[in-house]
Amino acid sequence: MSEFLQVVLSGLATGSIYALAAIGFTLLWQAAQTVNFAQGEFVMLPAFFVLIALHWFGWPLWAALLFGLATAVVVLGLLFKKVVVEPMLPNTGLPLIIATMALSIFLKEGTKKFYGAEAQPFPPLFPQETLHVFGAAVSAQDILNLTVSLAVVVALTLFLNRTRTGRCIQATAQNPAVAEILGVKTKRMVLYTFLINAALAALASFLISPVYLAKFSNGETLGIFAFIAAIVGGFNQIRGALVGGLLIGVLDNLTATYITTSYRAALPLVLLIVVILWRPYGLVGTSEGREV
Amino acid sequence: MKRRALLVTAAAAATSAFVAVAPVGTAHAAGTVLIPCVCELSGAGAVSGTNYRDGAHLAIKEINAAGGILGKKIEMTDYDTQTDPQTSRALMQKAIDSGAYVVMGTVYSGSTIVNMIVAQRAGVPQITGSEAPNITQKGNPYIFRTSSGAEKGVPSLTPYFKHTLKTKKIAVAWVNNDFGKGGHDVFIKQMKKAGIQVVADVPSEQGQVDFAADVAKIKQSGAQAAFVYLNEEEDARFLREAKKQGLKIPLVGEVTLTGQKVIDLSGGAAEGAFAHVGLATSAPVFKNFVKKFRDAYNRDTDHNGIKGYIGIYAIKYVTEMIGKFDRKAFAKKMHGLTLKASKYPGMMLDTSWDNTGEMLRTSFMTEVKNGKQVVIGTVPAE
User: Fold this and answer.
1) To pair with A110 at 20 to 30 A between CA atoms, which of A80, A176, B5, B348?
2) In DSSP terms, which residues pair with B38 in a beta bridge?
């Protein structure tokens, strides 16, 4: 029983990080109708901004985190939109998707060149204490990762549904032309979406790096798992990203413990195939039509 | 529009292909001898490959400053395999086509298994940092190790498990690549021979980040000790998870578990871990090398830096013994050769190669104490 609880709780903690990264996929899909294949690297990079502030500037952790967040919002939000997305957007979806793949390689290799190939220790944000729940050892870090992810999803959902700006963002995502006719500043709304995505990626980076360690290649696995989580949960629903992320985190651990560790990497893909066959729009997603 | 999109796609694909195979460096000049490094400079093996390459460059700088080999300066071109076996195979061919005298690399066993066939076919000696047992068991006369394979290292731990820890039940956590599988297979045979029951056999993927299930499995198995045979970063993540879950049994490794990088990354969780290592950077004999490496690159190396360094020095000494740049004669001379450190100081330790290219050398028992790797004993070469 304690073993079961152990792997479920650990899976939820890991899955919550996949969920934060997966939300980025859903946001950009709604804002720019594109898939950002550099999303994993977006989560990898902010940790290095923090390490630069810590080790090069000698700043305290709280200031370094603020620096990391601000830099991520500018670089991965504003610059990404202005330099990569806007010039490519008129060329339909495919070139933009390829551009994000190229960006992924650039960020990964650039980080390696600039900061080195070795993994770097990242300071923990929370106390390193372990709590014992019915025989299962759970770290405060795991509990807070899960709590923060859930809080972000709730806050983001409330923001999008209950505020004027949030509804304008949704209107822009659903039909930019009509939204513009109705007086919504669509360009600004799209920009907000990119900035929110960058901030979420930075948050995921700060939460996961104490466990994953900061390394240039971290985005590879994370990006794939988050992409699958977004599809499994529903690409057009923020809560779908949460469901998908948590599901993959837990199932991965349960498979490794009770079935096989050898094929655990295949599980998300199997889950993806099953969900696509059963509910092509994801577990909590809604079907949507698009002009092609 | 479609045509434009197609062109963009083609351009991106062509660029990727070029990046994958382009060497980092220039064609070699006359009056030099080319020793390319086909190494893991990116991807999962970047730490190992980069240290191996930098150790080799350090030796080259020293040798060139002293006049080179037989009056020729060494030129090293770096080829990044991206830790991908098929890319390493293509780059090995490219390195050989460029006129390599001897090739350094690769470090990851999965790549070496694939690319060593290319070097063998071309008759080019290859100095590898890999440790999977099967590398020297394929009858390849051109492959030579820079550290002992797992079939030499892992058995050194059996007396420790049997007599010191008095273990009856043991668990093994291993990385499911050629390096890990080689060590795992030797370990299982050794435990069977020693009468120790393996109660948990837990493979993990290279680059795995979540070890909660692995540790939970070992914890529930009733094992009295665990053999941890993973790559450095996975070691650190495993140790962190073991500490978190309160796994109290002795954790014993081979090669990587007590490395300084693992100690630094594990955030204190490596304390008390024990390992047998072929090349311990904390051993007094390597003190001078470790300092030189730090001065040159402003960072510390792991054992792979030593491997690269002694690999280049071995090439120099053997070439000077045969008196010419002859690949076949080089390979022949290496088999059954012993280089005494007193006469050949670049080797740092007395080093021998048998007729398969396997290396024999004194190795070390280490433990993590107060955040540092400490040598607690030596194991004679057998």
Assistant:
1) B5
2) B79
Residues in B closer than 8 angstroms to A95, CB to CB, are 4-5, 8-9
- Over the stretch B252-298, which tens digit does the pLDDT of each residue have? 998 889 988 899 889 889 999 999 988 888 899 999 999 999 999 99
- For residue B54, the surrounding DSSP H or E stretch is helix B46-65
Asked if A264 has any chain B CB less than 8 Å from its own CB, the reply is yes
Say yes or no: A252 contacts chain B, CB-CB below 8 A: yes
Q: Which residue has the tokens 């991908």?
A: B84
B375: helix, coil or strand? strand
A116: contact with B, CB 8 A cutoff: yes
Q: Are residues B193 and B252 both part of a single domain?
A: yes
Kindly state whether residues B86 and B143 are assigned to the same domain.
yes
Q: How many domains does chain B have?
A: 2
**The pLDDT of residue B29:** 60
Q: Are both B34 and B142 inside the same structural domain?
A: yes
Q: What is the per-residue pLDDT for B30?
A: 66
| pLDDT tens track for A86-129 | 888 777 678 888 999 999 999 998 998 888 777 889 998 887 78
DSSP tally for chain A: helices H, then strands E: 12, 2
Assess: ipTM above 0.90: no
Residues 36-75 of B with CB under 8 A from A: 41-44, 46-47, 50
Question: Any idea which residue has 């893909």 for tokens?
Answer: A269
Segments forming the whole domain that contains residue B61: 21-148+286-361
Nearest chain A residue to B1 by CA: give it.
A91
CB of B248 less than 8 A from some CB of A: no
Interface test with A, best of B230, B244, B298 (most A CBs within 10 A): B244
**C-alpha pair distances (Å), B99 with each of A84, A127, A186, B71, B203:** 42, 57, 60, 18, 41
Q: Looking at the structure, tell me whether residues B45 and B83 fall in a common domain.
A: yes
Kindly state whether residues B33 and B143 are assigned to the same domain: yes
Total beta-carbon pairs less than 8 A apart between chain A and chain B: 115
DSSP letter for B24, please. Answer: B
Both B309 and B338 in one domain: the answer is yes
Q: Write out pLDDT tens, residues B198-217.
A: 999 999 988 788 898 899 89
Q: Is B299 on the interface with A (CB under 8 A)?
A: yes
Angstrom CA distances, B248 to A68, A76, A85, B51, B223, stand at 37, 43, 52, 33, 10
Domains of chain A: 2-278 (1.10.3470)
CATH number, domain with residue B313 = 3.40.50.2300
